[in-house]
Amino acid sequence: MIRIDAEIPGIDAFLEEGGDPVSGDPFEGGLLWSGFDALFTIVPILIVGGFVLMVILAVVNARRLKRKGINPLATEAEIMADAMRGSSAQRPGAQPAVAPAKTLEARLEEIEHLHAAGKITAAERDAARASVLGTL
């Protein structure tokens, strides 16, 4: 604890300049308190700025999800479950992700149709039939 006497010569000058009356250094106390002032000014500004940035990013992300037809309040698990169930196929104009597999007969008929239309040669037809029949 520092005892301040009014009888010490020059004490008013140290107190006005923010100096330390015990050590005699006129800059010690003043710089220390100005550093704390700066710290207590900058830290709240950074915290508020970070919070504002988080709110802005959340709003932008919610708008982007809404434009894509996804509920922005849905959890990631709900979104993945909807994707696995094929909810995108229920949207108008959406194409299924995987085409249904053709039957063996349909694939052989397609090969014969391509040969009859002159799009493939007899050798290509035979190779295609062998390939289709080899997948059994």
Task: Summarize this structure as a short list of keywords or feature phrases.
2 domains, mainly alpha, single chain, transmembrane helix, 136 residues, membrane, rod-shaped, transmembrane
Number of domains: 2
Cα-to-Cα separation, first versus last residue: 95 Å
Number of helical segments with 4 or more residues: 6
Mean pLDDT equals: 75
Low-confidence region ranges: none
Rg, rounded, reads 40 Å
Helix content: 55-70%
Question: Tell me, what's the shape?
Answer: rod-shaped
What series of H and E elements makes up the topology? HHHHHH
Q: Number of DSSP strands?
A: 0
- What is the makeup of the main sheet? none
The helix-and-strand class reads mainly alpha
| Strand composition percent | under 5%
Protein architecture, described:
With 136 residues, the chain is an all-alpha fold. It folds into 2 domains: 7-88; 101-136. It contains 6 helices and no strands. Helix 5 (104-116) runs antiparallel to helix 6 (122-134).
Outline:
Keywords: Membrane, Transmembrane, Transmembrane helix. With 136 residues, the protein is an all-alpha fold. The protein has helices spanning 11-17, 28-67, 76-85, 87-90, 104-116, 122-134.
Itemize the secondary structure elements and their pairings.
Elements: H1 11-17, H2 28-67, H3 76-85, H4 87-90, H5 104-116, H6 122-134
